[in-house]
Amino acid sequence: MSDFDYDVLVIGAGPGGYVAAIRAAQLGLKTACAESRETLGGTCLNVGCIPSKAMLHASEYFDAAANGAMAKMGVIVEPRLDLPAMHGQRLDAVKQLTGGIEFLFKKNKVTWLKGLATFEDAHSVSVAGQKVTAKNIVIATGSSVTPLPGVEIDEKIVVSSTGALELERVPEHMVVIGGGVIGLELGSVWRRLGAKVTCVEYLDQILPGMDADVRKEANKIFKKQGFEFKLGTKVTGVKVNGAKATLTMEPAKGGAAETLEADCVLVSIGRRPNTDGLGLEKIGLTVNNRGQIETDHEFRTKADGVWAIGDVIPGPMLAHKAEDEGIAVAENIAGLTGIVNHDIIPSVVYTWPEIAGVGLTEEDARAKYGEIKVGKFPMLGNSRAKTNHEPDGFVKVVAEARSDRVLGVWAIAVPAGTMIAQAAQAMEFGATSEDIAYTCHAHPTHSEAIKEAAMAVQGKPIHV
Ligand code: FAD
Ligand code: NAI
After folding, report:
1. DSSP state of 420
2. 10 and 96 both lie in a single domain
3. Residue 150 — very low, low, confident or very high, per pLDDT cuts 50/70/90?
């Protein structure tokens, strides 16, 4: 008989935590998961990936009807926006998926402890006033919105991503602070539904971290769609007066300040790890200068029996990264070998077209390996994209010159998020660009552009 209530206690039921809990239970460990939200699924299912994709998907339909794309294909409709219905389908998706996790917890015999968990020591936490002990505790508390100093988020006029998912009317002018993933995805939703959208970005280009070619091309595409960009500009304050907000901004490199009026301001300048109130000091843990909990490659923290995964530890703040770490940590706790290859984590921006990448950017590959080879293929040369009237974008394959091993793949294409999976898998198997080029791809598919970009690494694409 163990002295502990549970073998494993997971704090947080986001994609990291709930997956860790389910896998631990599948491996025969007595498992509980503490969650302070009313529903399971964390940021991702409640206010992140899922509701944002529900609004992106629905607004794509509206946009296709309103911007002439459907008419071009012989389907004439005059769209009328029923925003409550659009929100209804979003809420329905969230309800079904969060309920699905509850079902999976029951099926796998994971106990859901409702409430905020705080450490008492390395093997016990209090959850809603109850002390619970466990041999292993996994911190999977996720992240929340980074505030902008001097800017108060009221979730009505000045909103975070959560408020931006729920707006009751289409703003006339939405200003997005930050040209990262959230700004571009949620800015796209409201632009499609009729808002004028201005994106103010501190850096001199949008989408930091992505391949430079991709950033430049994405900027061009968004501009063509109607986004206005103020690049190299820092927002220094937002004042709300009645139904209007006034932003003050200044050039990032110094210069005269200027103002901008909006009836909705989305603050999307990043997210920060959730560690406040966890009681880390009681288990001797500190956070690094980015507020993250450091772990070793098995996801062990410095405190005995305490592990950490997901947005609260270093690495990209992505649901699939958190999920993979959830599986790995449970396997490590069970004495198996749980591994996550952090070099091969795809990232996707779910705009129209989608933007995706995996591995190194061309710039990073050159810096790391010196000699590289790059193959690029335009979506304009892809028969399926052309037939569907989706000419924007390209695929780029970056390979090491000497070995031909693929180091990175980047894509701007309508289904780039789906296409990038094959690139990740090929890279996981150590593929060369030639391996991809000689793999038979179904015709006509957008994925043929990946094959052609790989052929372009050897200088031999067919359709350009
Ligand atoms: P979270 O999902 O943040 O879950 C942590 C959970 O822990 C929360 O439910 C929280 O309530 C709970 N918690 C915190 N502290 C305690 C405590 N002390 N006691 C009990 N419970 C606690 N990623 C993608 O990969 N694809 C996307 O398309 C995507 N879209 C996004 C869209 C938006 C608008 C946002 C905001 C994020 C998006 N993300 C996306 C990022 C993704 O949501 C996160 O990377 C992912 O949710 C992280 O998972 P996690 O398990 O680490 O943490
Ligand atoms: P982000 O880090 O992607 O982008 C923030 C942007 O804000 C940066 O470009 C930064 O330079 C800029 N910025 C910072 N301070 C500024 C200021 N004062 N004025 C102007 N610009 C400023 O952060 P974002 O978009 O908030 O998203 C947070 C995280 O959520 C992402 O990094 C990602 O991990 C996750 N996410 C993932 C999605 C996906 O996978 N499709 C979708 C949405 C979120």
Report:
1. H
2. yes
3. confident
